[in-house]
Each structure stands twice: as C-alpha cells, then as structure tokens.
C-alpha cells in the first residue's frame, strides 16, 4: 500500500507531493468502508445537479511575503456550469496553472472558497479531499507526471487501480486507439516522444470518466493534426460523459470547440467571453481583450 501512496503522488505536481503522501497514508488507515458511503453521496449530488459545478469566491493565492510576495491569484470570482468547456488564456505567470490547481483541490488557497457542486472543497477533511480529487477530477498537467517505472498501460490505469475499480476495457481501447497508443502500451514512458507521453497523460485523465477535466496546455507538444484529434476526443468524451472541461491553452483550434474563454492577467480575470457573445477565435489569439 505504501507503494500505492507513492505512485498516486507521482501523478501530481512536485509541490503537492508531501501533502499527498500523508493524505494517502491516512486514507489507507481509515479504510475503504468509511470513504465509500461518502463518495456515493458525492457522486449522486454531482450527477443529479444541474447547477454550477465549479464556483470560486474571492479566491486568493499568495506566495511569499513583503517585497517578494507574489499574488498568483488575487480575487477570482468564477462560476462554471456543468458541461461547459472553458478555455483559460493569459501571459506566462498570470496565474493560470495556480487557478487550475485550486479548482482541483491540489493546494489550499490563501483565502476565498472553491465550491464543487455547491460543496466547499477546502472544508473537506484531507482524506475526503484526496478521494474527491481522484474520483471527480481528471488532471492533465503541463509536465505529464508519468511514473517512469510503469508501462504505458500501467500508467493509464493507475487511477483505477488506486481506487480498486475495474477498468472498462472497451473504453480503454477506444481512448488508446484514438490517441494512437495501442502499440505503445508495453513501453516505458522514457521510450516515448514528448507528444506520446502527453497522450498517455491524457488517456490517464480520461479513463476514470471524471466529472471535471482540468487540463494545462494538453496539446502543447502535439502536431496540429494530433492536436485536432485530441481536442476532438476531449470534446466527444466531454459530451458523452457530461464532463466539465477547463483547459489552459492558446490553441486557436479550440475556438471551434469551447463555449467560453477566460483571460487572466496578474492573478485576476480581465475578460470572460462566451461563445454567443464574441468571436472566440479572436479571444484565444489575443486579437481582442488584450
Ligand atoms: N510554488 C510557488 N512558489 C512561489 N511562487 C509561485 C509558485 N507557484 C507559482 N508561483 C508564481 O505565481 C505566479 C503564477 O504562476 P502560474 O504557474 O500560475 O502561472 P501561469 O499563468 O500558469 O504561467 P505559464 O503560462 O508560464 O505556465 C508566477 O509569478 C509564479 O512565479
Ligand atoms: Mg502554467
């Protein structure tokens, strides 16, 4: 079980890992039965709700103090409806990744709240927050976060294994087929190109059919054709499983797919466009709103 804890931690960014080792170990101590009832209720709430699935109120995340303090998030009020496909854009350092981490409960805020399906996630105890994250959120990180000693197949099914769930083989085949990974399943991540590793990370995020997908530049290392296919797959699975997608990207190809574009500057949301309001392509490319 200790090994499992370390594996789960490796999915998440380094900064969060110390916390997660502790969380996962506590979860093991508390056992399966305690958490199952809780998550059944959570799942029911999510599937039955037609409300705002993600909501932040005056969300702030400051790093450091005094003259060197960085206001990575400086009062974010954001509301995302179930099923919405939102793109987040903004210059480097504007707080995009920090926002994504907060939405997924990967790190605690300095102040303010994040609600998922009406529930304040920072009020969950550590154990429930870990379970929530694993079952409800599919993360795709900028840096893949694959486990180097596990095969591609083992990496993809890792979140299911950690949760003691059976793998939906047909769905897995569909995902790996679409992502062009069928022939790489027995390889180690180190034997793949950057783009292929990114596709493994995408497959791993999709395999649990999470309610929310949080993706940080998921197509940054892919060629334009694969980018189109991957975005198409995300859109398709998003619709099929009623997923809510928040994706950091500058890719204009997304303009055909997303419902909304949020632009960040200096830890704040400076523009919020909906598909019906504006040419989304222009918002993504920075032709408007900069
Ligand atoms: N762990 C940390 N400690 C200190 N400062 C941090 C930390 N994480 C992020 N920051 C700072 O917070 C600000 C926002 O960072 P963030 O990673 O959210 O930016 P970003 O918009 O995702 O940028 P990029 O497009 O380059 O990925 C930056 O100034 C960054 O240096
Ligand atoms: Mg970032």
Question: What percent of residues adopt helix (DSSP H or I)?
Answer: 40-55%
Mean pLDDT: 80
Can you say what the CATH homologous superfamily is? P-loop containing nucleotide triphosphate hydrolases
> What's the SSE pattern?
HHHEEEHEEHEHHHEHEEEH
How does this model look, in words?
It is a single chain. It is globular and about 50 Å long. Strand 4 and strand 5 form a beta hairpin. The protein starts with a helix and ends in a 5-residue tail after the last helix. About 10% of the residues have low confidence. It has ten helices and ten strands. It has a single domain, classed as Rossmann fold, CATH 3.40.50. By secondary structure, it is of the alpha/beta class. The strands form two sheets. It has a six-stranded mixed beta sheet, with helices on both faces. The chain is about 40% helix and about 20% strand. The longest helix has 17 residues. Helix 1 packs antiparallel against helix 2. Bound molecules: adenosine-5'-triphosphate (ATP) and magnesium ion. Adenosine-5'-triphosphate binds next to strand 2 and helix 4.
Indicate the topology.
Layout (H helix, E strand, L loop, with lengths): L1 H10 L2 H17 L1 H17 L3 E12 L6 E12 L3 E6 L5 H8 L7 E6 L2 E2 L5 H11 E4 L11 H11 L6 H10 L15 H13 L5 E5 L7 H17 L3 E5 L11 E6 L2 E7 L5 H6 L5
Parallel strand pairs: 3-8, 3-9, 6-7, 7-8
Antiparallel strand pairs: 1-2, 1-4, 4-5, 9-10
Helix pairs in contact: 1-2, 2-5, 3-5, 6-8
Bound molecules: adenosine-5'-triphosphate (ATP) and magnesium ion.
